[in-house]
Hints:
Distance between the termini: 35 Å
Oligomer: single chain
Amino acid sequence: xxxxxxxxxxxxxxxxxxxxxxxxxxxxxxxxxxxxxxxxxxxxxxxxxxxxxxxxxxxxxxxxxxxxxxxxxxxxxxxxxxxxxxxxxxxxxxxxxxxxxxxxxxxxxxxxxxxxxxxxxxxxxxxxxxxxxxxxxxxxxxx
Length: 143
């Protein structure tokens, strides 16, 4: 089974999970770990250890991080390695709602390489700009 772990500074991961569940429904394979204000990385390490120890040895971990290289990510990588899960982990950074919907929908039915390619090759998950004053109505026609 693939376990999706949303990690962030503050409440972002919890809000992302709540939004994600509006699209994919409640899921037991989606978890949240947050670094709270004034919380130490030692406390964060304990949260990760508790969560990762609940996974089966065969499970793969999809780590969805808010920021590349932040304390939540670096601590997670250390704990994944300590629990012999790092080699089976996929780490994605700068996550957003469209990306997480696609990952949640595709995770179990897709191979590791397919998930990596999906994230790397899909510009539709990148931030965009909507011009409400555009004269082209093709965007409205697609809806």
